[in-house]
Amino acid sequence: MSQGERTIAVVTAGLTTPSSTRLLADQLAAGVRDALDGRGVPHKLVVIELRDHAHDLTNNLLTGFPTGALREVLDTVVRADALIAVTPTFSASYNGLFKMFFDVLDDKALVGKPVLLGATGGTERHSLVLEFALRPLFAYLQAVVVPTAVYAASSDWGPHAAALKARVDRGANELADVLTNQAPKPPTDPFENPTPFENLLQQ
């Protein structure tokens, strides 16, 4: 690892190949990559497909011990400087595979670690899963979750792709700010520099 290099673990819990969950994870990872490139920060992105470790996760829950491949994945998340975590929405919450992974991860592994959250679903009405399911989980794990979490419904992949990209970029820049210890840029206030009243009268 080069000096100053940041490692970002990208955990995705999609069940199919390809999946919209992996697609969103890739977009978030690309957004963070671009944000860190713009800051001149060397980095490494490590993508973890939980579906590849489903059997090992089940065995870990039954035995209490991770096997070789899963042990390596858990160590990657523990050592990472930041985490991107994306899940599909099942029954108005994260799916069981996502929950299993964070159940077997040491409960101190994410203390103080910057995290960018994402979720996918068939309809926009499940978007609050980020706030009432994912944020409480990562608050319990004492992670530092950035303000913007990104939800992508089926409709976001069509004509509304630009709106999704804007959310992705905002969340990615917030994670990059935390990683580089930069204060986030405040939103532009349209009333910060109002036109003087006398000038309005002259128009």
Automatic annotation (TrEMBL):
<feature type="domain" description="NADPH-dependent FMN reductase-like">
    <location>
        <begin position="8"/>
        <end position="157"/>
    </location>
</feature>
<feature type="region of interest" description="Disordered">
    <location>
        <begin position="180"/>
        <end position="203"/>
    </location>
</feature>
<dbReference type="InterPro" id="IPR005025">
    <property type="entry name" value="FMN_Rdtase-like_dom"/>
</dbReference>
<dbReference type="GO" id="GO:0016491">
    <property type="term" value="F:oxidoreductase activity"/>
</dbReference>
<keyword id="KW-0560">Oxidoreductase</keyword>
<keyword id="KW-0288">FMN</keyword>
<dbReference type="InterPro" id="IPR029039">
    <property type="entry name" value="Flavoprotein-like_sf"/>
</dbReference>
<protein>
    <submittedName>
        <fullName>FMN reductase</fullName>
    </submittedName>
</protein>
<dbReference type="InterPro" id="IPR051814">
    <property type="entry name" value="NAD(P)H-dep_FMN_reductase"/>
</dbReference>
<dbReference type="Pfam" id="PF03358">
    <property type="entry name" value="FMN_red"/>
</dbReference>
<dbReference type="InterPro" id="IPR023932">
    <property type="entry name" value="CE1759_FMN_reduct"/>
</dbReference>
<keyword id="KW-0285">Flavoprotein</keyword>
